[in-house]
Amino acid sequence: MYGLILRILRDRSEAEEVLQEVFVQVWTRAETYNAELGVPAAWLVRIARNRSIDRFRANSVRARTVEATPLPPPVETPEAHAAMSEQQRTVARALQALPPEQRLLIEEAYFRGLTQSELAERFGLPLGTVKTRVRTGLMTLRRELEQAMVGVRRYE
Amino acid sequence: MTIDFEDLEFPLAQLAAASTEAPRPEVRDRLMARIRASQPTLPDGFVFNFEAHDVWWPHPVPGSA
Predict the structure, then answer these.
(1) In this structure, which topology does domain A1-69 adopt according to CATH?
(2) How many Cα neighbours within 13 Å face the side chain of A74?
(3) Domain regions of chain A by residue span
(4) C-beta of residue B18 within 8 angstroms of C-beta of residue A85
(5) What ipTM, to 2 d.p.?
(6) Among A3, A41, A113, beta carbon nearest to B10
(7) Chain B: residues touching A (Cβ < 8 Å)
(8) Chain B touched by A26 (CB under 8 Å)
């Protein structure tokens, strides 16, 4: 969870602060978990991602910086790759397999919380193009992951 | 319009979590101080006791594996 928060905020102190806020929220608002909406891990991720993006957007200095600074690529050192689980490697492969123009929009939407309109404005694209690229990218990603998971289960 | 990642939200988070360091040890102390200061409403008959040990044991979150 800390890794996700840090990836969004890119500041260790702020990420540690948000990490604490997430756990305090989970501790004090556990009754808001709804099992029908997903597993607990997904609930934790949703809280962490939303809080991180809120913090990022609330910081006006950082918000101005993001206009000029694209997201850094995921760290792909040999050590980081070795530390990945098979599941993480599967996700990484599926994401890397996407056309760059789709991957970029999906990463910006996921890690920056940009809406489709904001993506269109930021990259100077027609809104329809953004919608098509995001939808196609997400469908491809979902399909690749499903196929990979079927492959894993086949060998279990 | 915001983009709903639905079932992809968790896999993408896993990827982000794969390549970074852990929070500094003092974060745990600060977190525990906040936890102690913000007790949730407990059902009748329930009480929390905090252990004094210094080690945090890994605890799998359902759905994370």
Answers:
(1) Rna Polymerase Sigma Factor; Chain: A (1.10.1740)
(2) 28
(3) 1-69, 80-156
(4) yes
(5) 0.76
(6) A41
(7) 1-3, 5, 7-20, 22-24, 27, 30-31, 34-35, 38, 40, 61-64
(8) no
